[in-house]
Specification:
This protein has 20 helices and 13 strands. The chain has about 475 residues and is α/β, with parallel strands linked by helices. It folds into two domains: about 190 residues, D-Maltodextrin-Binding Protein, domain 2 (3-Layer(aba) Sandwich); about 200 residues, Periplasmic binding protein-like II (D-Maltodextrin-Binding Protein, domain 2), CATH 3.40.190.10. Strand 1, helix 3 and strand 2 form a beta-alpha-beta unit.
Length: about 475
């Protein structure tokens, strides 16, 4: 890339990164606690993180579509056992085309660490060829002119016809396709240890009254009812799930897409906060900050009976040799059986000097191929982004997820935590305040609601969807 182009790109990116990493002003307006987001402003150096996760074994290339070996550096946060199995599908398919996947896996749930490292790499002039990007942030990167447009690949592959409308809309920005989709996660899942439930003669709860009864019975049996971490994104994931359970997707969107101060002032939010606090009594004491994989282990080994989390947990259980309806079961979180709280896995390509465009387009084509859609999603725990996938290759959990998502937008809710609903600044501010309430019992439900209202009011009109 020419130095003058690179300099202009850095200047424009700096403006956007500054915007993305300045939540302090309105957090202060909500009552201080700049420290809640200070860690987001000080990411570890990329050199200390990238490459710490070993790459899966790559198969020997079987075909050669390029005159010389090509490679793509890929920044992502798929580092757990199940996630690595899914990534290996892409690595091996690329290898068959004589394209090397240069792994830059950044540990950290919800992509928090990866996002910071990515921005540092781009500002330093070392943008990767491919990056995992989720949600509305596509538009911010694309508007800078940094992302490769995949219109030709999408047209040749009939993506608009194949994809769910929600997915097609997500990967488009101002009429151009700027990312390639992989799979759809359902987040509002209740996982349970089948051996424990069978021993106690219980079935998974479908209402919160039933949940309380089941949890009480588990406590009496000396079993922790609900596994949970105090890590910010995990607490916020539970919070957004409870919000969906409270009043469905319409009110959920008022909260996290519109970020409406009126919605945050609604009595329903107070009820959500009360439910969140009540659930603490059913969690391990104290609730410590643990990676989601460790929390999942506590359910798998019987220390806890239930876990509310996205279906990446199912992919992890499968990687450990556990199977649906044998060692673990899955159900919708009480009150959400008809709804789908979703996050969509996607990869975007940095245009750079366009020298990697052929290889990048091959990757995009492979991601939408029947083989990758089937195998990646089977390992990841997700469902295909295709409207009509092969249902025979899905387990019960995935089939229920696909049927619910297929109902359309009225049943779908975009995840706040996983960047489907709003910008990074808004997500971080709401998540930090929810964690503060969750971890500090001195903060009342009413005080937390007032602070969330203040955050919503302090946001720019554009962030609120006005």
């Amino acid at each position: 890339m020419r130095p003058e182009v690179m300099g202009d790109m850095r200047h424009r990116l700096l403006r956007v990164v500054t915007t993305l990493l300045l939540p302090t002003s309105f957090v202060m307006a909500a009552g201080g606690h700049e420290c809640c987001l200070a860690a987001a402003l000080n990411p570890p150096a990329a050199s200390t993180i990238i490459g710490t996760i070993p790459s899966p074994v790559v198969t020997t290339p079987t075909t050669q579509n390029f005159p010389a070996p090509s490679s793509l550096q890929v920044v992502h946060w798929w580092t757990s056992d199940g996630e690595r199995r899914a990534v290996s599908v892409l690595i091996n398919k690329l290898a068959e085309q004589n394209i090397q996947w240069r792994d830059a896996a950044i540990p950290g749930g919800a992509g928090i660490g990866a996002g910071k490292v990515l921005k540092s790499m781009v500002l330093a002039g070392n943008a990767p060829e491919v990056t995992q990007l989720n949600g509305v942030i596509f538009g911010e990167w694309s508007d800078l002119g940094l992302l490769l447009e995949l219109d030709r690949v999408a047209t040749q592959g009939s993506w608009q016809k194949l994809l769910f409308p929600t997915v097609w809309s997500l990967v488009n920005n101002h009429g151009h396709v700027v990312a390639a989709p992989l799979g759809i996660h359902r987040i509002n899942n209740l996982y349970y240890n089948t051996a424990i439930f069978k021993r106690l003669g219980m079935t998974p709860p479908t209402s919160w009254d039933e949940f309380d009864q089941v949890a009480t019975r588990l406590q009496q049996a000396g079993i922790t009812p609900l596994a949970q971490s105090s890590e910010t994104w995990q607490v916020a994931t539970l919070f957004e799930t409870l919000a969906l359970s409270e009043s469905g997707p319409a009110y959920y969107r008022q909260l996290f897409v519109d970020v409406s101060p009126k919605a945050f002032a609604d009595p329903r939010l107070l009820h959500i906060l009360k439910r969140l606090r009540k659930l603490r009594q059913f969690m391990p004491q104290p609730v410590t900050e643990r990676p989601w994989t460790e929390v999942a282990h506590s359910l798998a080994d019987g220390r806890a009976a239930m876990f509310i989390m996205g279906d990446w947990v199912k992919g992890e259980f499968n990687a450990w040799g556990l199977n649906v309806d044998q060692q673990f079961g899955c159900a919708a979180v009480p009150g959400t059986a008809d709804y789908h709280l979703y996050s969509i896995d996607t990869l975007a390509m940095f245009a750079g000097d366009y020298s990697h465009q052929p290889a990048q387009e091959v990757l995009a084509q492979l991601m939408m191929s029947p083989a990758v859609q089937a195998d990646y999603n089977r390992f990841k725990g997700t469902i295909s982004v295709w409207r009509t996938p092969d249902l025979n290759r899905m387990d019960r959990c995935s089939t229920n997820s696909w049927r619910t998502f297929s109902k359309g937008a009225a049943s779908q809710a975009p995840s706040l935590v996983h960047r489907m609903a709003t910008d990074e600044t808004t997500k971080d501010a709401i998540s930090a305040e929810v964690r503060r309430f969750f971890t500090d019992e001195r903060v009342s439900e009413l005080e937390a609601q007032q602070r969330l209202i203040s955050i919503a009011r302090a946001l720019p009109h554009t962030a609120r969807g006005d």
